């Protein structure tokens, strides 16, 4: 614990293809990260910032540098990602090099209905520029669970694949079509009222296309010989496929229902950090180009499986001023089509103020 | 399990779909040829080459070549820095028309003119050049669409020109649909250990030049092994990284969620409904899901053509060494490669010759070429991918 771990970064530079690919994998339509031309002409508030004019990355794009899955040791226990607390110091700028370090902060024993005894590993990832100046910090939570224990308790064994009606599917389409991006029009702190709701966004119904696009943009899996070498170093990272006898990695549970069921989840599922990223998309859509997401904390409560739709929602909880910043506190959460809450959290956003210049860059 | 997959219904969609399992008829060839010569939107892409997406592509194709990955190593080679694996661009699928007729990647023939480096911006364009009717054992009537793709860099230099082949086959439940018998290979622990030993013995020529004088006609090239293929290899190792997506779909930055919805509305005939959930999804998912693989008519969950073809790229670049230049390479996807299958890429030097090359005055000269026969073979000794390559080699 506390020791900096050996990590293999995925993206090391905030290039346009890397940020555009990642943004599109979460369904993000904000031209701020997708479009060179828009990014270079956007006003970004009352302070014209040369850094911002060159383009910025979506906040949770940093998952594609280091995915924040900090789960060392405990071979034999499954790793289920259950949440991130992000603290962003500044925007990631187009073209810059990013480095990340990670370590384990805490280990807690837990009891739960999923598999009885569990271990919660709390990890820390620090993202810096090459000079070591901070860009962001992520504190992640990973539950280490007993596969056998989860199967015996069968918490999700009664879950069935959801059958959508045509009306429900059309309603999801409506929500996609209605998705609004505040963009270049500043959302002023003064105009926001406590209790106000953010326009909800929907992601899903989740398909293998969505998940594989996200995984490839964020942290591609090791293939072939690299998988073999990794498995020799970490024998617990793979299992013998009952059908073919060959080795397969647990990542297959994000594609195959039968693999998810080998550790007690009902069906093939999302990766968890994609859901946190959708919540960040809810907020960046709402806050506009002049807002700045300072903190985002999301706890994942239930599995999000193939076929599930996720509505990301938010509500203004408080307003305050701190130093130079005009801050908004938000409650955020995710609901699925069954009416279950699959995630909850909160966020702090700095908004431009009519009396003050643009928030921290 | 016989069912008639219901057509989709969106709030808005590009056209109405009568059936998701249409068949080919006498008018199909004309339809398949309709867009011959037209700049094909699905092949248009601008690809910025970066160190990170080169690394992604190497991960995808199983290359550990330091010429692509290690800047300080590459600095000492004739290239003076990292270059990109040549297959990173130019593999767009060009298969317009024939709504609801499945597309199966059938192969590629590349010619390369320039290396690509980090910072290069590659413009990819493609057009359909021909379509031909084919008859087969597994599918009685198919249509082969042939496209041509050109890639140029930011200096307007031609980087590559390729012919891409796409076979259009009716889905299993269509009349005359593809109907492979299902199969799945089972491995014993001892067999798997032997495969691992084989993989561990593979090497990279790298900085040791492969001199033209030393290569003999008829010489066998060392084989490399891919597999047993896992569903994670297909779906998660890079099919949707920049290069992977360009290869698989011809376009950069496809996207999830809303972008998938847009795609379904544009291509409702390629939106297949899962009878268990009523959900709409892309038939592409047969690459990792047995239900859809069966609907397509495949014998099991099957690999992506561009992925397997790119193994040829890794094979030849590992063999030829840093001082060589890959002039031409091609492969034909003849049989499916399924989850659980292994593919050994093998090769043999077929002939060597000296060719005079045109150049600016003072730069004319000769190049020393070798032509290699390449092939991918599975655990049943079936050749799944015949191929060929022409490499320019250095002399002592």
List the uncertain runs of chain A: 43-51
Secondary structure category of chain A: alpha+beta
**Largest beta sheet: strand ordering of chain B:** 1-3-4-5-2-9-12-11-10-6
Report the CATH architecture of chain B.
Roll
Cα(first) to Cα(last) distance of chain A is 33 Å
Number of helices of chain B: 10
Strand content of chain B: 25-35%
Structure characterization notes:
Chain A is α+β, with helices and mostly antiparallel strands and 361 residues long. Chain A has a single domain (16-351), classed as Hotdog Thioesterase (Thiol Ester Dehydrase, Chain A, Roll), CATH 3.10.129.10. Chain A contains ten helices and eleven strands. The longest helix of chain A is centred in the C-terminal third of the chain and has 15 residues, at 273-287. The two termini of chain A are 33 Å apart. Chain B has 396 residues and is an alpha+beta fold. Chain B has ten helices and twelve strands. In chain B, strands 1-3-4-5-2-9-12-11-10-6 form a ten-stranded antiparallel beta sheet.
In short:
The complex is a heterodimer of chains A (361) and B (396). By secondary structure, chain A is α+β, with helices and mostly antiparallel strands. Chain A is built from ten helices and eleven strands.
């Amino acid at each position: 614990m506390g020791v900096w771990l050996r990590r293999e970064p995925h993206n090391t530079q905030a290039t346009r293809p890397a940020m555009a690919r990642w943004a599109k994998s979460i369904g993000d339509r904000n031209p701020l990260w997708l479009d060179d031309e828009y990014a270079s002409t956007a006003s970004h508030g009352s302070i014209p910032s040369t850094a911002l004019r060159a383009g910025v990355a979506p906040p949770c794009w940093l998952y594609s540098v280091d995915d924040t899955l900090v789960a060392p040791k405990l071979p034999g226990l499954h790793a289920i990602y259950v949440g991130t607390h992000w603290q962003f110091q500044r925007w990631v700028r187009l073209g810059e090099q990013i480095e990340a370090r990670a370590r384990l902060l805490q280990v807690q024993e837990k009891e739960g209905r999923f598999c009885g005894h569990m271990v919660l590993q709390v990890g820390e990832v620090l993202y810096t520029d090459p000079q070591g100046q901070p860009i962001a910090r992520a504190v992640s939570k990973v539950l280490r669970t007993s596969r056998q224990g989860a199967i015996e308790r069968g918490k999700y064994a009664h879950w069935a694949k959801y059958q959508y009606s045509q009306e429900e599917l059309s309603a999801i389409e409506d929500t996609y079509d209605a998705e609004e991006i505040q963009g270049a029009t500043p959302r002023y702190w003064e105009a926001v009222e406590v209790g106000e709701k953010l326009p909800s966004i929907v992601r899903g119904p989740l398909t293998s296309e969505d998940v594989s696009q996200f995984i490839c943009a964020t942290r591609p899996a090791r293939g072939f010989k690299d998988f073999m070498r990794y498995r020799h170093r970490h024998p617990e990272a793979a299992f013998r496929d009952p059908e073919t006898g060959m080795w397969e990695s647990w990542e297959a549970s994000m594609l195959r229902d039968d693999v998810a069921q080998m550790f007690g989840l009902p069906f093939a599922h999302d990766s968890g950090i994609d859901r946190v990223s959708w919540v960040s998309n809810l907020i960046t859509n709402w806050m506009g180009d002049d807002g700045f997401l300072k903190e985002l904390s999301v706890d994942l409560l239930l599995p999000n499986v193939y076929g599930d739709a996720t509505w990301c929602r938010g509500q203004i909880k408080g307003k305050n001023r701190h130093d130079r910043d005009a801050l908004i506190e938000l409650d955020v959460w995710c609901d699925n089509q069954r009416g279950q809450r699959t995630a909850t959290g909160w966020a702090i956003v700095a908004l431009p103020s009519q009396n003050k210049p643009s928030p921290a860059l | 399990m016989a069912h008639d997959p219901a057509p989709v219904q969106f709030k808005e969609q590009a056209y109405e779909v009568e059936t998701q399992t249409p068949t080919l008829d006498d008018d199909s060839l004309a339809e398949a040829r309709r867009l011959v010569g037209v700049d094909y939107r699905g092949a248009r892409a601008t690809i910025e080459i970066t160190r990170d997406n080169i690394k992604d592509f190497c991960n995808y194709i199983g290359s550990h070549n330091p010429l692509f990955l290690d800047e300080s190593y590459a600095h000492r080679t004739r290239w003076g820095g990292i270059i990109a694996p040549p297959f990173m661009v130019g593999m767009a699928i060009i298969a317009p028309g024939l709504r609801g007729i499945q597309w199966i990647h059938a192969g590629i023939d590349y010619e390369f003119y320039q290396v690509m480096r980090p910072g290069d911006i590659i413009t990819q364009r493609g057009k359909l050049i021909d379509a031909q009717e084919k008859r087969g054992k597994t599918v009685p009537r198919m249509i082969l669409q042939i496209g041509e793709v050109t890639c140029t860099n930011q200096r307007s230099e031609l980087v590559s020109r390729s012919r891409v082949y796409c076979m259009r086959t009716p889905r299993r439940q269509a009349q005359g649909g593809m109907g492979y018998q299902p199969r799945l290979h089972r491995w014993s622990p001892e067999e798997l250990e032997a495969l691992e030993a084989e993989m561990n013995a593979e090497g990279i020529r790298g900085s040791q030049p492969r001199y033209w004088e030393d290569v003999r006609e008829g010489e066998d090239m060392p084989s490399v092994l891919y597999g047993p293929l896992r569903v994670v290899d297909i779906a998660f190792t890079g099919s949707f990284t920049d290069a992977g997506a360009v290869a698989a779909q011809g376009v950069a930055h496809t996207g999830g969620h809303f972008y998938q919805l847009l795609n379904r509305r544009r291509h409702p005939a390629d939106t297949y409904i899962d009878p268990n959930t009523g959900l709409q999804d892309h038939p592409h998912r047969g690459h990792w899901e047995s239900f859809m693989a069966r609907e397509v008519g495949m014998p099991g969950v099957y690999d992506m053509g561009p992925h397997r073809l790119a193994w040829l790229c890794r094979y030849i670049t590992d063999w030829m060494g840093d001082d060589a230049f890959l002039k031409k390479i091609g492969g034909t996807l003849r049989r499916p490669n399924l989850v659980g299958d292994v593919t050994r890429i093998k090769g043999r030097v077929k002939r060597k010759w000296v060719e005079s090359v045109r150049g600016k005055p003072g730069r004319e000269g000769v190049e020393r070429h070798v032509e290699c026969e390449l092939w991918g073979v599975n655990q049943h000794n079936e050749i799944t991918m015949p191929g060929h390559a022409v490499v320019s080699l250095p002399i002592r």
